[in-house]
Amino acid sequence: MNTPANLLFRLLVLTCAVLGGWVTNRIGIPLAWLIGSMVASGIFAFFGARLDFRKLRPPGLIVLGLSLGQTFTPAILEQMLRNLPIIAICSLGALCSGIVMTRIFSSLAGLDAKTAFYCALPGGVVLMSVQAQHAGASEKHVVLAQTVRLMIVVLVYPMLIAMVLPGHTAQSISLTPSALLPPLADAWKVLGFVVVAWALAYWARKSFIPNPWMIVPCMLAILLGGFDLQPAEMPHGLVAVCQIILGVSLGAQMTPDFIRGSSRLLLASAVSTLLLSAILAPAALFIAYLFDFDHGAVLLGMSPGGMPEMTVAAKTIGVAVPLVLSFHLVRILIGNLLIQQIWWLSCRLRWVTAPA
pLDDT, tens digit, for every residue of 202-235? Predict the structure, then answer.
């Protein structure tokens, strides 16, 4: 209920989220605005505050999608298509790596094999929850498990890249008026671009696309970039605001019920995420070395995190966003088309135990 007191409280949470992002940005932590706002809103949620910022998420994802898609140029698109086979193989391998975690996840969390399968696969919150619902698995458990995994990856991977690959450093993004708003002539172009992207994403909501609010704008910007027809660049400050929105929406899920009622699931998610990272991180570094890719980009591209968070991380720590985006877009496509076949094959080969 949107009472004045409720609105004031939401404003307080958002203010604290901005402050948290500002502090982490000043310290130089990678993915600062997202992590700082996520921690701030998570503290409120953990102490009993009921937060619901879901309505803010779609416009934030639209701007982030456009911003990330704008990193593609005709030359980069040509390079991506040339490397598409190896990207597809790596993306499929990253997705299937979760199969080895299914038995561990089922044992630790006490879940049936099918639900554990969708919890363990690194496909992202939206994709795996949608696929779990279609397959008759427990969507609630899958959402919780994938959310915990996402939070761990968001916190760990940027730090890991900063330590292992010191050439990549966090970029400081300000929220000054000049950073938020472009010149008036460009502001109308930015607004028009966002409106068109929103209309296309709204139309695509009931399609097979798991996260149209980000993927559709991203594909629109990539398409325009391929023909060198970008109408306007998304302001850096506006992108930081959208990182805050994304962080607040993630942190708001850390309620006391979430923590207390999911202790086994939390343990299984944390253990499986760390084990998956131990498998995927060395594999990513080997692939990057073998094919002369940006090491940080392949690490984020093959990470068990979601596309919005990993591509935003790529942009803030200065790695090749198009390569990271390519890995995750291909993984999403494979997940939409082949996830049921992967489950069937896993059962036939007895990698997982099918329900009776």
Answer: 998 877 666 788 788 888 988 888 787 888 788 8
Distance (Å, whole) CA 312 – CA 154: 10
| Torsion over CA: 303, 307, 310, 315 (sign) | positive
- DSSP output for 132-164: HHHHTS-HHHHHHHHHHHHHHHHHHHHHHHHHH
Quote the CA–CA distance of 220 and 127 in Å, as a whole number: 20
Q: Are 219 and 12 in contact (CB under 8 A)?
A: no
Q: What's the chain's length in residues?
A: 356
Residues with Cβ within 8 Å of 78's Cβ and at least 6 positions away in sequence, in order, are none
Q: How many CA atoms lie within 13 A of 35 on its CB side?
A: 23
Question: With contact defined as beta carbons under 8 Å apart, do 304 and 277 qualify?
Answer: yes
Nearest 5 degrees, angle CA 330-CA 332-CA 335? 110
| Mean pLDDT value of segment 333-354 | 78
Check if the beta carbon of residue 267 is closer than 8 Å to that of residue 84: no
Question: 347 is written with which tokens?
Answer: 């059962």
pLDDT tens by residue, 154-163:
888 877 787 7
Question: pTM to 2 decimals?
Answer: 0.71
Q: What's the number of CA atoms in the CB half-sphere (13 Å) around residue 160?
A: 21
